[in-house]
Design goal:
Layout: E1 5-6, E2 18-22, H1 26-36, E3 41-45, H2 48-57, E4 61-67, H3 74-85, E5 91-95, H4 101-111, E6 115-118, E7 123-124, H5 125-154, H6 161-171, H7 180-186, H8 191-200, H9 206-223, H10 229-235, H11 241-252, H12 256-262, H13 264-277
Parallel strand pairs: 1-7, 2-3, 2-4, 4-5, 5-6
Helix pairs in contact: 1-5, 5-6, 5-13, 6-9, 7-8, 9-13, 10-11, 12-13
């Protein structure tokens, strides 16, 4: 019998382009397919070799694996080897019928997973999408931070620790407009306190950092194969692809196509490095002098 699927109002969340479903029964795979609809491809694999082939070929990925009752199942051996080769791919574990949540929790450390879904009482579409989005957003934030830190290192500098801390939290919410007040809330500070914190450490303002987070996330999506520019604009909450294109051209002096050809993440990370090291970079701009990056939000329409 097919597993029950409960669906409520659809949510627009950032999802990986491909879900690699490994060692899962077809009814569970069907639930995931129904949950992501056309927003993601679900690839069913039978063994580690097939999984590895897909993981090597793409970047916007998430593995879906079962938590089995038999800890000596051959799946565990193959999975452990693959996990060591691809430690940065997010993984969602599904506790199969007959495996209690407590048993599943004990094995989470063995699986190295991002989140756990319990199939004993049915799988809800919204729970699946939320789990996928969180795992993917966390993995994406880490990929971006690694790219930024590598760019600073290549230029002979260390990325400021405080900047990394704020960016990390902002990146996890960068698929929507991020006002300074929300960045402050993520840092558990008052907005004025965070602004003074950034000034004291010669960092861009909280709103500028939020803008950089949005731009960095756009760059990562542009670099990912299989994503159309229209889908990137949609997942980032822009009213039209033209609105996002206008922002990218304004801040990078390149079209999305040029960014993709040159390496979008590399270019944007270089621009961030230049912004941080510019001694004359405005930290608390006036309304008239405010850098246009502050306007990186979804509410601005296309020209």
């Amino acid at each position: 019998m097919p597993m029950p699927l409960t669906r409520t109002a659809a949510l627009r969340l950032p999802l990986p382009a491909t879900l690699v479903a490994w060692a899962l029964p077809e009814p569970v795979v069907a639930v995931f397919r129904g949950s992501v609809a056309r927003e993601a491809r679900v690839a069913l694999v039978r063994n580690g070799a097939e999984a590895q082939e897909i993981l090597r070929s793409g970047s916007s990925l998430c593995m879906i694996v079962p938590v089995l009752r038999d800890r000596f199942d051959p799946f565990w051996t193959d999975y452990t080897v693959l996990r060591e080769r691809f430690p940065n791919i997010p993984v969602i574990a599904v506790a199969m019928p007959g495996v209690s949540s407590m048993q599943a929790a004990v094995r989470l450390s063995q699986l190295g997973v991002s989140d756990l879904l319990d199939a004993n009482d049915g799988l809800r579409a919204d729970d699946i999408r939320t789990s996928l989005s969180k795992a993917y957003s966390d993995a994406t934030a880490q990929r971006i931070l690694t790219a930024v830190e590598q760019e600073f290192s290549l230029r002979g500098n260390a990325c400021p620790t405080d900047l990394t801390t704020i960016l990390k939290r902002a990146l996890r919410h960068a698929h929507t407009h991020l006002p300074a007040s929300k960045v402050a809330a993520l840092m558990q500070m008052h907005e004025r306190t965070l602004r003074k914190f950034c000034e004291a450490r010669q960092l861009p303002s909280p709103q500028l950092i939020a803008g950089w987070a949005r731009l960095l996330l756009s760059a990562l999506y542009i670099d990912e194969r299989g994503r159309t520019f229209a889908s990137i604009a949609d997942v980032l909450g822009y009213p039209t692809p033209g609105a996002l294109r206008k922002q990218i051209v304004r801040y990078t002096a390149r079209s999305p196509k040029q960014l993709r050809q040159e390496g979008a993440m590399c270019i944007v990370a270089q621009l961030l490095h230049q912004q941080i090291l510019r001694p004359d970079a405005p930290q608390t701009p006036t309304h008239d002098e405010r850098p246009r990056l502050v306007l990186l939000k979804s509410s601005e329409g296309a020209a």
